Amino acid sequence: MPRSDAVKLVYAPGSRSGATGETVFNYIVTNTVNGDEYREGFIDPATLENGVYVLDIYAADYFGNTATKQLTLEVSK
Q1: pTM of the model
Q2: Which residues span the domain enclosing 17?
Q3: Which of 13, 29, 44, 61 has the most CB atoms in a 10 Å sphere around its CB?
Q4: Number of structural domains found in the chain
Q5: Residue 21: phi, psi to the nearest 5?
């Protein structure tokens, strides 16, 4: 399990978990947490050449829950 200060790098605003109501986990997908290692990451479209890009997103947690999503984005300057 990562240290508790890594939590702020994982869950985005709007995440909630509790005994009542719906549990929602919104992840900051540019950041990485893996055991004791964690870091903040960024995507800067200004550094990309014009074109169409496919972004593959993977998220997994300690309990084996996984999610994937593929986004297509276009950069034009």
Answers
A1: 0.60
A2: 4-75
A3: 29
A4: 1
A5: 80, 180
